[in-house]
Every structure is written in C-alpha cells, then in structure tokens.
Amino acid sequence: MQPPFPWLRPTIRIRLTLLYGGMFLIAGILLLSIIYLLAAQALNVGSDLPFKITEGTVTSDICDLPSKASPDVFNSAMSACVGQQRQHALDNLLSRSLLALLGLAIIAFAFGYAMAGRVLSPLGRILRTARAVAGSDLSRRIELDGPDDEIKELADTFDDMLERLQRAFTAQQRFVGNASHELRTPLAINRTLLEVHLSDPGAPMELQQLGKTLLATNERSEQLVEGLLLLARSDNQIVERKPVDLAEVAEQAVDQVHAEAQAKGVVIRGDQKPAVVQGNGVLLERIALNLVQNAVRYNVPEGGWVEVTTDVQHGQAVLVVSNTGPVVPAYEIDNLFEPFRRLRTERTGSDKGVGLGLSIVRSVARAHGGHISATPREGGGLEMRVTLPV
Q1: Which of 213, 233, 253 is the last residue of a domain?
Q2: How many domains does the chain have?
Q3: Is the Cβ–Cβ distance between 245 and 274 less than 8 Å?
Q4: Is the dihedral angle over the CA atoms 95, 100, 101, 103 positive or is it negative?
C-alpha cells in the first residue's frame, strides 16, 4: 500500500541527512554553550565594580542613576547598571549565536542531503539493476566505477551473482528444451498408435470407445506438458495470456471428476458465476481439476459433498472449493502445499496421487499473479480459495 506521504519515508538518504545535521547541531550547541560560559566568566556577571565613586556627579543615558545621593548609593546603582549591561550583552550574544546556529544548521542539513545523495548514488544504480533483473533481464550488469571501497565491492559481488544466475538459468532453459523433447516424443507415439487403431473399421466398439478415451487423455497430457514447459521457460511468469473464464474452467473440472465422485458417493454442487481472467487456460484448468480431485478423494466415506463456486469479489476473480472430510489441524495447512507431502505423511505411498497437486496449484496461481489459501472447516474438510487478478 502506498504511504500517504511518500516523501516522508525514512530512506537511508533522509536518515544520513538527519545524522549529519544532528551531529552538527549537537556540536554547535556544545560550542555555543562553551562560548557563553567563557564570555560570562570573562564579564564576571554580578561582581563588584573595579572602581569606587567618592565624590562628584555621575550621569548616564542608559542607567537610571540618582541625581543626588551618597557615594555608597551611587556605587550600588552603578554596580546594578553594569550588571544589567553585562547580562544584556550575554543575552544579545546568545540570541545572535542561536540565529547563526539555526542558519548554519539549515545549510548543514542541505549540504548533508546533497552529500548523502552523492554517496548513495551507487546504491541507486544497484537498485535499478536489481529491478531490471527482477524483470527477467539477467544480462544487466552494474559495472560500477570509482574507488575500491565497500560499495564497489558490493556492486562487483552483485555482478558475480548475476553472472552465476545467468549461467544457471541458461542451463535450465537447455534442460527444459531437452525435457520438452523427451516428454513430447512418447506422447506423440501414443497418439499415433491410438489413431492407427481407431482408424481400423473392424475394431470392436469397446476398443474404439477405450481408444477415444485414451486419445482424449493423451491430448490433455500433451496440453498439460506444453503448459508446464511454458511455465518453466517463462520463469514462473505467464507470457502468453488470453481471456479465460474461471466458471468454464470449474465446470470442465467438475465434468472430469463427476464419475469418480459418483463412485465415491460424493455430491458436487455449487454456483459458477462468470469470472474472466487473463492467463493460460490449460494451467488454470489444472488448478480447478487438482482442487476438485483432492476434494473428492480426501472426503468422508458417506454423505460427503464438494462445493465449487466462482465469482468476482473486490475486483478479483475467486475460485472456492470446499469439501467435507477429515479434520485438518491449522498447523498442517502449510505442509499441504509442499511437494510430495500430505496430511501427516511426508512421502508418496497412496493411491490418491503423487503429492504434487497443491504445489502445482500454488505455483500456477503465483505465475498468474494470484495466491491460494486454505482454511480448515469446522467439523472437517477444507476450504480452498484461489484469488486471481482480473
């Protein structure tokens, strides 16, 4: 959230300026106090006059002296007058010194602000480079010139880190390309074999129906592989985005899990309202499918239900999948999103899946700029909420 007064943000430059100015103020106040004490001691405020009036007439335009009085009265009046003038001189010195200190403090703060900006300018260059790298431009380098100080050492270390990251991401891209070829090849072979068998007019009806089902499953696996590889290539960011309605995605997922839900006696319900987002349709369908499958598989033995809803709330598209099921402790929620982990288990070993469903859901949601949260339901089960920007 943007602060109401961004210029009041306590940046390093502001803090250094306050530090420089504060140190100058403290030093100025100490110096002024010492000068004031020395001047007061030199003037010796309140001491007696170094002379005595014994006779004659004394007049003054400043002090109110008696016209006729004894020498003792004159001496007392003169002492009071001189003391007032000394105090007035000290007060004048103090006021003028404070005004001078105030002016110099303003100059010191301005000078400190300028010097802090000059000293921190290399950090601004590092920050701009880091932001460019965050935008997936690993080719950027700081290449800071100047004295061999700590800031240059930091910039050189950052450049070395970027160099290693670029090599690592390049190697990852090569691996993704090779893995893409290795994954596509067997799926393409399976598709070819299925199409050949389906083209045989003498094949039994049961085999033709099975072949069509396997062909549809193979095609969806190919699409999923393409989507996941696209996700890996784009560094967990969706490059090619198209309008996708979460309601259609949820309905498609419910249709695919309907037979499994009937076999387990689980009722799927819910209202899917239109919620269009920009993203990859295959990956968004995988979010809904994984959530609905988990909700069906991790349910109660009898009388279970799954509720799937989509809507637009507060300017964001929301997909909610709720279900009955076993009681889930709140401290176990975070573990559910880790790869190969389930409730109270850490490894695979179940016929309900391989333990990657929710981790894929979280990864895909983050790639679309959204997030997923899980909340235990009272009485058992979970409520999974996926929020995506529209």
Answers
A1: 233
A2: 3
A3: yes
A4: positive
Residues 331 and 201 in one domain: no
> How distant, in Å, are the alpha carbons of 292, 296, 306 from that of 269?
11, 12, 6
**Phi/psi of residue 355, each to 5°?**
85, 20
- Tell me the pLDDT tens digit for each residue of 135-147: 556 777 888 887 7
For residues 208 and 283, membership in a common domain is answered with no
CA atoms of 252 and 275, how far apart (whole Å): 14
pTM summary value:
0.53
Q: Which domain holds residue 62?
A: 6-134
Pairing between β-strand 305-313 and β-strand 316-323 as defined by DSSP bridges: antiparallel
DSSP per residue over 52-97, as a string?
Answer: ---SS----SSS---SS--HHHHHHHHHHHHHHHHHHHHHHHHHHH
For the ranges 19-28, 74-83, 300-309, the lowest mean pLDDT is seen at: 74-83
Domain membership flag for residue 164: no
